[in-house]
Amino acid sequence: MPRSSPKHSSDFLSGTPARPQGAPRGLLVYYILYRIGQKPVHGYEILQDIDSKTEGAWRPGPGSVYPLLKKLVTEGLIKVEPSSVSEQHVYHITPTGQKHLEEARQMFAEVGKKWTSMRRIFMELMDARDLGSFFIDGTRAQFQIAQDTMESKIKHLSPSEARFILREYALSLERQSEWCDSFLKNLKKNSSEDRKSASGDLDTMSTISAEAKK
Fold first, then answer.
1. What mean pLDDT is predicted for residues 49-69?
2. How far apart, in Å, do the first and last CA atoms of the chain sit?
3. Are 100 and 33 in contact (CB under 8 A)?
4. What pLDDT score was predicted for residue 196?
């Protein structure tokens, strides 16, 4: 019997690469629990919050969010109450849900480090023509995320912890700035040498052309 060929994605065979998943598996349920732990919310608010925070990069639909809300209610991690101002349900975290969330925080830190390390793979796959968007837009977004995160969580840090984090972050920014300055100087030097070389080539060609006309 002929050996069966390995199965491939029809998208791949048709020349259309499949898009990577927008978020790690399992993140949605923990984010829903975290978001409700911040304050009671409607299900639709969770959808809007994710869309806003990821600038549309991650858009789980109602078909993903509402079944998870129902599951969390069944497991006693959240509870649901009718809203006093609308027909929508309002979800509240329970003590059991809060404890479950606290136990998962170390996992969040580990997953965050792993995804940060994975950026090298995405950058290798990136076309050089997309570097402008990555460096400019990506760096701007990264700084905004760092700023928002520090401002929202600083109340949970001691003054010494906050100072340490900000000093290390400032040192990192200084190193990046120094690297950029050094790179710009090298580019300027190479550009100047290229212009001199091009000028010398033109002079040589002019001389050869003049001698050929004699």
1. 89
2. 80
3. yes
4. 62
Structure tokens at 85: 């101002």
CATH code: domain 20-125 is 1.10.10.10
Give Cβ neighbours of residue 42 (< 8 Å, ≥ 6 apart).
83, 86, 88, 89, 90, 91
Burial code (b: 16+ CB inside 10 Å, e: under 16) for 134-152 equals eeeeeeeeeeeeeeeeeee
Is pTM, for the whole model, over 0.70? no
Neighbours of 69 (CB within 10 A): 21
CA 35 to each of CA 49, 75, 169: distance values in angstroms, whole numbers, following the listed order: 9, 17, 27
* Tokens matching residue 167: 């000093």
pLDDT given for residue 58 in this prediction:
86
Q: Which residues pair with 79 in a beta bridge?
A: 92
Candidates 56, 66, 61, 60; CA nearest to 89 is: 66
Q: Which two tokens stand for residue 157?
A: 């840090």
* Chain-centre distance for alpha carbon 192: 37
Pairing of strands 78-82, 89-93: antiparallel
Torsion angle of C-alpha atoms 68, 93, 31, 64, degrees rounded to 10: 20
Report the alpha-carbon distance of residue 56 to residue 22 in Å, rounded: 10
Cα dihedral 88/90/91/92 (nearest 10): -170
